[in-house]
Structures are given as C-alpha cells and as structure tokens.
Amino acid sequence: MNAISPTLAKMHGRKVTVHYGSKQALFDVDLDVPERMVTALIGPSGCGKSTFLRCLNRMNDVIDGCKVGGEITLDGQDIYDPKLDVVMLRARIGMVFQKPNPFPKSIYDNVAYGPRIHGMAGTKGELDEIVRGSLEKAGLWKEVKERLDQPGTGLSGGQQQRLCIARAIAVSPEVILMDEPCSALDPIATAKIEELIDELRENFTIVIVTHSMQQAARVSQKTAFFHLGQLIEWGDTEQIFTSPKDERTQGYITGRFG
Amino acid sequence: MMPQKAPDHIVKSFDDELRKLREQILAMGGRAEAQLADAITALAKRDSDKAVRVIESDKGIDAIEMTVAQDSLKILALRQPMAKDLREVVAAIKISSDIERIGDYAKNIAKRTLQLNQQAPLKPTGSIPRMGDLAIKLISAVLSAYANDDADGLIAAWRSDESIDEMYNSLFRELLTYMMEDPRNIGASTHLLFIAKNIERIGDHATNIAETVHFLVHGKPIDETRPKGDTTNVAING
Ligand SMILES: Nc1ncnc2c1ncn2[C@@H]1O[C@H](COP(=O)(O)OP(=O)(O)OP(=O)(O)O)[C@@H](O)[C@H]1O
Ligand SMILES: [Mg+2]
Prior knowledge:
The structure holds two protein chains of two kinds.
Chain A: E1 9-20, E2 23-34, E3 38-42, H1 49-56, E4 66-74, E5 77-78, H2 86-92, E6 93-96, H3 107-117, H4 124-137, H5 141-144, H6 157-170, E7 175-179, H7 187-200, E8 205-209, H8 213-219, E9 222-227, E10 230-236, H9 237-242, H10 247-253
Parallel strand pairs in A: 3-8, 3-9, 6-7, 7-8
Antiparallel strand pairs in A: 1-2, 1-4, 4-5, 9-10
Helix pairs in contact in A: 3-4, 3-6, 4-6
Chain B: H1 12-45, H2 48-79, H3 83-116, H4 127-148, H5 154-181, H6 186-218
Helix pairs in contact in B: 1-2, 1-3, 1-4, 2-3, 3-6, 4-5, 4-6, 5-6
Bound molecules: adenosine-5'-triphosphate and magnesium ion (MG).
The site of adenosine-5'-triphosphate has 11 residues of chain A, from α1.
C-alpha cells in the first residue's frame, strides 16, 4: 500500500482490526490520514467504513462486544493508550453523523455545549464569540442569528446538519469525522456542506464516509476503497476515479459490482 | 492489469450506450480510412469523379462526429461515468475529433487532385501512394486496437508514424528539386507537397488515436511503457 510517511500523516492506522463479538469486521487496515486534507472512505454497504471511522475517535468503545486491534495514532500518539483521556480525545477528533442530531436545546446551547463542558470560555462574552464563530464557519450564522434561543430541532435538515458541524467545530477539534453527512440533504444543502468541507480543510483534517462517488470525487483529495472489511486501494482521489489499480475498485465505482 | 472484458454494468442500458459509442467511432474510422484510400486512388489514377465523391462523402463523417459528441455529452451528464467508463467517453470525444480531421485531410487531398488533373502529370505522384498506404495501415492498426481494447500492438503502429515523417521529408526534397529544375512544375509540385503534408498530418492524428487508446486501456500515457532502445520491431511496414 502506498503509505505516506508518518510525519505527514495526522492520523495513522496500522493493522487495524475490529471484531463485533466473534465476527470480524475489519482486517489489518493500514491507512494514513494526511493533515489538512479530506480523506473519503468509500465502499459497498457493510464493508466497514463506519466501523473504521469510529475507530478513529474510539466511538467503538461504547459498542458492546466490539474489540479493536492494531495501532492508531494521532500526531504520533497512540489513541488506544489506556492512560489517554477519551473525552479529551473526542474534543480533538469531532464527529458528524449521518442523521442530523441536534440536542433538544436552543441553537445557542447546541453550539455552546462542548465549549462549556471543556471550560473553553471564561466569560459569557467569550462563549458568545465561540458560538458566533462556529456558526459562521459552518455557514449558518446569517440564517440563525435572529433566533439563537429557538430549538435546534426546529431547523431544516440541511440547517440542522450545519448546526451539528458548528457544534463539532466549536471545541476546535483537529480532525472532523463525518459519516454520510449529506445523505438526508437536498442538492443545494449538499452543495453548501461540500463547500463548507472545502473551507474547513484549511484548518481541519477531515475524514468523510460517503456513498456518493461524485461527492467523494468533489470533496476529497485522498480516497480509500473498502471491501469486505479490507482496505483494497488508497490514493489520490483523482487517480482512484480515473485509473483505479484494483479491479474491485474499478467495479465498484463504475457500478459493475457482481 | 485490468481484465480485458469488464463485467457488465448493473444498469444494462449504460452498457448499450457505451457499446453504441464505440460502434459509431469504428464506423466513422472505417469511413475515414476508405476516404483516404479513395483519395489516394483518385490521385494515382487521375480519377476526378472519384475525387468528387470523396469531397462529398466527408459530410457523412462530420455528421457522425456530431452524434458522438452529443451522445458523449449525454453520458457524461446522465451517467457521470468513472474510471474506465470515464476514459471511454473522453477517448470517444478525442478519437472522433482525430478521425474528423483525418476525413478533412482526405477531402483536401481530393480537392487538390481535381486541380492536379487539370495539369500534366508529375513523377513524384508515385511515391505519394506509398506514403498514403502507410497512413492507411496505421489508421487501420489503431482502429483495430481500439475495437479490441488491446493496446499491445500499438507501440509498433505508433512508431510507423516515423516512417511517414521520413517519407515526407524525402518527398519534400525531391519536389524542391523539381521546382528548381523547371518553374513550370511549381504549381503541380506545390499541390503534391501539400498532399504529402496532409498525409503526414493524418499520420499524426492516427498517432494521437494510438495514444488515446493506450490511455483508455491502461489509464496512463504511452510514454511510460514505451520500450526503450528497441529498434528491431519498428514497423507495421508498408
Ligand atoms: N454494532 C454492531 N454490532 C455487530 N456488528 C456490527 C455492528 N456495527 C457494524 N457491524 C457489522 O460490521 C460490518 C461493517 O459495518 P459498517 O457499519 O462499518 O459498514 P459500512 O461500510 O459503514 O456500511 P454502510 O455503508 O451500510 O453504512 C457489517 O457486517 C456490520 O453488520
Ligand atoms: Mg456506515
């Protein structure tokens, strides 16, 4: 596999395996996540994309019977080190899910939640700034600034997803994981999220799972193709979509899977 | 390497569309090849009727190119092809435009033949058919490589373009001598020179097609696989 050098990789997976009980879902995955780039994970349903994504911020820890093996590092540090504070880790590696899941709280509180529990703001004014900045970065500020006290659940699907992105950004993570963030959105809302991802790439490292080949092609610089729990091929997005090396990749992205 | 025959698409009509695209291009290429052959025969036999038919038939090639362009655009917009499929569509657009140019050059040869037939015959007319044959063989080799999705035979064909270039260079010198010998030869010689140049350009377009087919099949430019220092296997010979 064409692994890049560890110093360039923000995150670094080596021989990552995952078992759900006795069922093995990932087999020796070696994948690097380069810094300030968008890495897209693609592959047929059930191939292990979400499983791999959850390994990156230890979300699998909360799943009963789930065992993760191998090594995953963030800036060279082992994230499965028992001494590591998982809450801190998840502040550094944020996550956005397939279905927008705002808390049943106000728009303001949705974004302020993380900074509050991490004690990131000393004063109300500082917190206001963080909320405003995050909503701006998520491209939602203009639409919600007049109604910050209203419930986040009252927003449209696309707005809710951007709210969830704002919530993820609010704690200044270094890496943002997104699992099919646009699957519930219309083309315009999707385009806005994609534009946002492109902007976020300046400051954040992003890993996105998507079922849309076009979306992977549009937003990512690196693409990884998974199949039956294995990482089949990984490389520059352009190469994967014009001249994939493995015939399974070719079969999947051209819609020929038998 | 990828297998020669990829399995069918889950969406069957996509396969039909891609197949139709290839068929159109092969039909178009076959026509251009025939047009060139006819243009050369018209020149060699001083057959003005044939030359006129070549000029008129060029419209047919242009029409296919339009259809290919429209169909390709439709596939790009509606299927959003990826990987080999994407290369297939891009190759179709490129190859059809090369073939269209080849058709234009054949037409131009026929037009000049009409002019030449008004004048006394010149000797070098004889070496032009040989050059033309080489170009026809080259076109037919690249088209069959395209038809079979097989780039292996291409390198040899690709190199035979060098022989066309060499023939052009020597014809150029020969015609220059004629013109210097007798200024009355200048008119006919100039036509022959342009005809030779047209054939040389046709060779270039056929070479482009060879490169496109290689990219289509292997997903990378021909340069990377060109065998170095191998001069034994030069020609598809003429
Ligand atoms: N909580 C779980 N318990 C048991 N098995 C699981 C669990 N989550 C996932 N799996 C299994 O692990 C494999 C990989 O699942 P995963 O959700 O990672 O796939 P995916 O590539 O994200 O699929 P999709 O595109 O459908 O979201 C599947 O076979 C799935 O059934
Ligand atoms: Mg999933």
